[in-house]
Write a structure and sequence with these properties.
By secondary structure, the chain is mainly alpha-helical. It has eight helices and two strands, in the order αβαααβαααα. The chain has a two-stranded parallel sheet with strand order 1-2. It is globular. The two termini are 36 Å apart.
């Protein structure tokens, strides 16, 4: 049938970055991307509650990046020793979160350095434009006609983590910069800046 879908896209949770090798073995010829963002903005997104237009504060509950604090994974322990020369026990919440996020970036970097070239790093800024003009038509090799372009634009207005699809997505990079703290900026520079600059080499 002419309207039958022929392509499927999988979006993995952030910790799936540590299993890119499995995905590559399962789908050796399939291209993939790793989306990364300015370290300060990323860390602020994880740690600083944001105003929720539907009432109250968003971002509550247990922080994903701090869930393993009592039992940190070995790659995080190794990263902290390499970057800080100490152990994880003395880390602040900001530092632990930054170190955890750095392990995700380092896992992706390892695949970029050792894979067959199917991967591409994509910086978060102007993401929709990059998808339409580069990622989908060139990296994925899928034609983007006017209908597809409009569908992408329509979907991009919806907040991806909204359970009911009833929350609009708004560009918030400048807001996150403004809401960041001195502790967040210091932790970002200590643990995330290196991988951020390395990922830029694979864009």
């Amino acid at each position: 049938p002419p309207n039958k879908e022929r392509h499927m896209f999988f979006k993995l949770a952030s910790n799936g970055s540590k299993r890119i090798d499995l995905v590559e073995r399962a789908f050796p010829s399939v291209p993939w991307i790793f989306v990364f963002r300015d370290p300060v903005q990323t860390l602020t997104s994880h740690l600083v509650p944001k105003d929720d237009s539907r009432g109250g504060k968003g971002g509550g509950g247990r922080k994903v990046c701090l869930k393993t604090r009592k039992r940190p994974q070995e790659d995080l322990v190794r990263l902290v020793r390499a970057y800080r020369g100490g152990d994880v026990d003395g880390l602040s919440s900001e530092e632990f979160c930054a170190a955890y996020l750095a392990t995700l970036c380092e896992s992706a970097l390892k695949r970029f350095r050792n894979s067959s070239g199917n991967g591409k790093a994509v910086e978060y800024d102007n993401l929709v434009t990059k998808l339409i003009q580069d990622i989908i038509p060139i990296h994925f090799g899928i034609k983007v006609d006017e209908n597809a372009r409009q569908r992408i634009l329509n979907v991009s207005t919806v907040y991806s983590k909204s359970k009911n699809g009833d929350k609009d997505w708004l560009e918030d990079s400048s807001t996150k910069d403004a809401r960041s703290t001195l502790e967040i900026r210091a932790a970002s520079e200590k643990f995330l800046l290196h991988s951020y600059l390395e990922l830029k080499k694979f864009t």
